[in-house]
Amino acid sequence: MSFSISHLLLLEGGLMHFGGNGISSGRRWTFRPLLSEGTLSRSILHNYTARDSSSEYCGCLNGGWCQDGGVCDCAQFQALGDRCQIIPNQGRDRDGICRSWGQHHYETFDGIYFYFPGTCSYILAQDCHAAAPQYTVWVHNSRVCDGSVHSCPRALSLFFPNEEEIHISGYQVHQGGRRLSLPHTVGGVFIERLADYLLVKSVFGFSLAWDGGSGVYLKMSEEHQGAPCGLCGNFNHLAGDDLTTARGIRTDEPAAFANSWAVDLPHERACPSVDLDFNGPCHSESDMDALDDSRDAEVVVPLGAVQRPEGQVSVTAQHRRLGGAHTFVPHPMTRLTMQRWNTFLSGSS
């Protein structure tokens, strides 16, 4: 019997109603202004089809092949956009889960995968349906990541009404400057470590799993349908509008979308926005040739896009050249880990 990640993110109870004035954290934060908000279409901003066909790189992402005239062939993973910048993932066992891993890889609740090399802090998900959000999740990417994106640590911040910020770094959880001993309950939120993961459960239909390094999995109950916003999208079961900016503008540009959800932290220096024409993980033939010499490398596969052996959430594969784009899959969550999680969450011994 196989288990999906949804078994790990079981939801309990109904809605919890909070009073007060919403999030009570003392931290001030602002949305990052967008780049060229009124002209988000790449066909307007850049004429990529006019690139020199002799160039060794034409900007294709996500397995796109550079064709004559600088046009990207996106058939490899049925990617969309003139750079193959997004991949609709309707694979089985998705279960409406938003996930992000390896600093730069994101998949929305409704199954849109995109690569975004941002180095700032971002709103991963937030309750945008109410004036006082029931939840807000920030992901803090490494400002400098010179090695593998899997070796550069991220962190999370969680905000709930009338509670101080909960900060998660590695497997340490802090609130109000003090470290919390796990398991721990904060209001209607329960935090526990199980094996190599931290699990956050709430009584109002929000749950999260964190691998201590870069991988985060987030699930909402159906009562939150259409309510979230942020890098995880809006959870309305319509993939076409997932990349909606903080100002409510739809785009097919991951950079324009994700930049809009950046937050400036008062104790950090200003963080640069990502250019619309950002490079993929490998942006030249020389980069790909160097990777071709490494048989231990992994290739990108959007979660759910391939058959997974032994109930894994993702699979690794031998490195292959994908026409100008190499990306990486997260560490697999095995069936055993899922079963232990499911047993724990169900309250069984």
TrEMBL record:
Alphabetical UniProt keywords: Disulfide bond, Glycoprotein, Signal
Keyword Signal among record annotations: yes
GO terms under cellular component: extracellular matrix; extracellular space
Residues in VWFD domain copies: 96-272
Record's signal peptide: 1-16
The protein's name in its UniProt record: Otogelin-like protein
